[in-house]
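# nightly structure sweep
# worker-07 picked up a monomer target from the shared queue
# config: single-sequence mode, recycle default, output format = structure tokens
# input follows
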Amino acid sequence: MKKIALVSHGCAKNLVDSELILGILKDNGYEITLNEDETDTVIVNTCSFICDAERESIRSILELVDKGKKVYVAGCLSQKHPEELKKEIPEIAGVVGTTDFTKIIEVLENENYTCKVNPNPEYIYPENVERQQITMGASSYIKIADGCNYRCGYCVIPYLRGNYHSRKIENIVEEAKKLVQKGVTEIILVAQDTTGYGIDIYKKPMLPKLLEELNKIEGLGWIRVMYAYPTRMSDELLDTIAKLDKVVKYVDIPLQHSHPEVLKMMNRPAFDYRTMIENIRKRIPGVSIRTAFIVGYPGETEEYFEHLCEFVRDMKFDRMGVFKYSREKGTPSYGMPNRVSAKEADKRFKKLMQIQQEISAKRNAGFVGKTIPCIIECCSDDGEVIARTQYDAPEIDGIVNIQTDKLVIPGDIEMVKITGAAEYDLIGEI
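# output follows
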């Protein structure tokens, strides 16, 4: 049996693609490993969202080439720079684009197909492929759509994955049921924009309907929605999140900025987000809101940045990420004037994070003394347990450190008494 390894970089959406690639390999008789030392052939599924992600992917490719591995490159970096990759790293055995990974077997087994990259990508989820999961634990991601119809000024994704394509409700529900049968407790819905789900195939937003169908699945514990878009936060969606018992009261809505002028330059919806945030909190009692902002965007003056700082102080987001603007070729912002220096962007990044750190510390302190449901992530032999509240997404938000003598199993949802708090993490006991 042919043995092949896979190395996956990037976001949760890319992780799903990696698992689909593994499913295709398994269906075609390959033995799969995640340890590249066990085989001479390795597929690297790359990320190209920002410069740092590109560098990490390239470093991974070069390290494998230096080890004498036969390397095939998939994902966003190969979609963005197929010819350059082959030219700069001629040792690469083959290249597969973001929407061509279903052709991976042709590229592996036919030397005439060293490059399969569609210059006009359209991502259609391969429903006939069963994912082979890289991580089997409490949670698993489900990609409900891919591609994007928006053209935000800083983002290269639509050019790498094409326009928005939703999957059918019945296919998503069927996949969720299979995951639950494998022991998954929490499913996390991802797309470039989850709130736009269904418009392309059902002619109206169908995320509320999808959530209702998923909520019926027996044995499923939690349902989490990531990557909402500001103009799609309808009352229907918010009321659905509020009423369904399995849907966690957590809204992830990357806003990117607060000042209307910066939002216009970003080609983002420019309106007062305060009213929307207040409406979310009113309709979903006890909701946790996560957002993300970009600092240092071309044209972001000191005044505009201070507007953002004041907005963050006022809104007191439960969770927040901050990114320094990354200048990407092929995006509308690449040639924009009034660029902010790297030094100034770094200063703004640190200031905004400091504001949020103080907000987060106060919010976490409010949990001390309360008993709340937490999902068990992992356990160690010495009794230390890592868990998460419903208000925290895996890998990007906080954790709960628990000491207990009770036998707990990853995926279980336990009632945990919170005994201590730091800026981002909690301490608890069962």
